[in-house]
Specification:
Length: 826
Amino acid sequence: MPRDWPVLRTYVGRQLDRIAMPLGGIGTGTVSLGGRGQLRDWEVVNRPAKGFAPTPALFALRVQARGSRPLGRVLEGPIPLEDYEGGHGSPVSLAGLPRFRKATFEAAYPLAQVSLEDPELPCRVRLRAWNPLLPPDPEPSGLPVALLRYRVANTGSEPMSASVCGSLRNFIGVDGTNGEACRNRNTARASEGLRGLLLSSDGVDPGAEQWGTIALAVRDEADVSTRTAWSERSWSHGPLDFWDDLLDDGHLEERESRRDDPVASLCAGAEIEPGEEHEFSFLLAWHFPNRGVWSPEPGDPPVGNHYATRHRDAWAVVEDVAGTEPELERGTVDFVAAVSESDLPPAVREAALFNLSTLRTQTCFRTADGHFFGWEGCSDRVGSCHGSCTHVWNYEQATAFLFAPLARSLRDVEFAHGMDDRGHMSFRVGLPLSRARDWPTAAADGQMGCLIKLYRDWRLSSADELLELWPRARGALAFAWEPGGWDADRDGVMEGCQHNTMDVEFFGPNPWMNCWYLGALRAGEELARAAGDGEFAATCRDLFERGGRWMDENLFNGEYYQQQVHPIPEGIAPGLRLDSREEAVGSMPAMQIGTGCALDQLAGQFVAHVAGLGPLLDQDHVQAAMSGIIRHNRRTGFQGHMNPMRTYVLGDEEALLMAAYPGERPVRPFPYFGEVMTGFEYAFACQLAFSGRTEEGVRVAAAIRERYDGERRNPFDEAECGHHYARAMASWALIQALTGFDYEAGSGRMRFAAAEGPVRWIWASGDAWGTVRQELVDGARRVAIDVHAGRLALDEVELRGVGSGTPDRSGWLGAGDSVEVRFPTV
């Protein structure tokens, strides 16, 4: 049996209001579990659908103690009256049905536990909801399923009958925005150990994005009944008839319907003795194979969904999951517990783990050919900013360290599909891949960051397929030296037209872009050496050293690095400029950093640390710049702050501004200067931690997670340009920064920080993950490394500041293997 579920955060009262934890697989879409235990935001049909929930979409409980009348409740906590006005268009499914009086939500993503209590009932209920999450394998982690277990405990003194019933309207044909149901039908199904319903359609076009199937099943129950439809009689007779039928004897009677979207209900019953409990285990699965492209042209076929190639329909999904559920749960709980129980600050564990939910949302998808893609985030009804945007996805570190196959897919798309023979990389890749380079512009930070990530991923794996991309990567770096390009004079400093993640072009040397460039030059140097290209490696080294010196001598103002704004040059190379709106104020370009203290001035250094590339700039200057950012950019109250753009922080909250102007602010600074965005904050938090300023880095992360506390914002939805924003997955690198974890596959060397006392940490390399324990035993420092999943080579273990040692077993290690190294104490 799997161990008990870990809990990282408990939510009560108003903290339940905004919770919506996505349940589903990587690239499959999700249905979210609300803080009251309700199912909300049904985003399973190939697009975002905030606020969309079919009516009904709920689970209900019927209980009857011996000698007492039956009682019924929807298996949800109370609807908050503060935000409910009622009337037509209510966002709550059948709000008039009785609910439990109290709810508590406990979470350690993707494991959620909702406790429900009501003094009128002779029972208590605990919902356990989850989906598989098993790094490093994206296949079991990419199952389109939500598992819902309702554990009913008899708290009375008499035997009790209990029935749990799930009901769902067959909304196939509708995605929350488009389409309509047409001749949908619900069919009772049974397989070994499973009973349930398959929701399908006879009238929706099988080629439509909204066409597919849904399955609702319950496992291993003797007393199961189904309804394929609710009654259609007038004046809300359908819900009344359903409720009366359920409460009558806990067994459903069939009804007929001529509706295009009939309601399916599945009920399971059991007898429970006093002091005992029974668990009703439901599986909800979906299968919508026809994902389209973001802006189709005539004749474009659907790009499809990888998950839909693995099963014929949703019923096949529940059959598959039911057969492997114990193993899936063990692997998921093992991973979540390893994060939750690591000796790391709670905010770090929470930020790293909870933001992994983004991989499950409609922000991310895998096409039928297996490639992995992402939007920047999700608007309420459409993806937000298409194309695995290089400058946004530069920041996230989760895929590289947890799901290496997905990271390698991103590198393949960037270098093999999104880049032309000139070395110009479209920073938004088009679909289908035959139109990957349709986007006309390359981003300076995006393209340079892709080079650092290529080195990072190769270093973690030594995968031949990544080193085979070196000729393309060489061209991507040399593209910076084109006439009219980013560094046309080849001095290691970007002066040219630099489109970037602020959605404008910077003109003139600036720390933000040049830090990415220095990191790319170092990555190019290391990759060139690995590929046997010594001459190019020397070129990269020379430019790196000259560019770093120039930046320290000319951009560091004594407090932080700032921009030298240059006039807009003539002869800008093709493909570098996206937008020329309102380009100048007087003789100089508008929308620049100027003398501002930019939060992201050291972003390239953060990713270089993650990749093991070392320092890029004078470390005294870097330390001073971090202090300058804390001094100028941190706000502990926003009541007097003026921000003309999007607002993600208010009132007395604490956060870091994108830029601060200790002196005079430009008339037209870059657009987002006054905003707060968590992905950039995490990047800075990591940079602090990598630089030895752990407490300050943890404070940044803690302030973010306090803002996403359930009452003010959804803890599973850190927003930027849309919900579930990819950049926030930079938070995974906090674990690396605080533990000192580093891995080189080629040498089989693993590194950690030397801990002052006994610790247990999680580590992850992309192709494997496990735990490490450090403790003092018999006068020596003992380091024990356990591999929990995946496979990697390990020949040397290093503790920074202590030394290196050979494990008692070297070579390839797999799941279940453990090694030990002992270091003499100093």
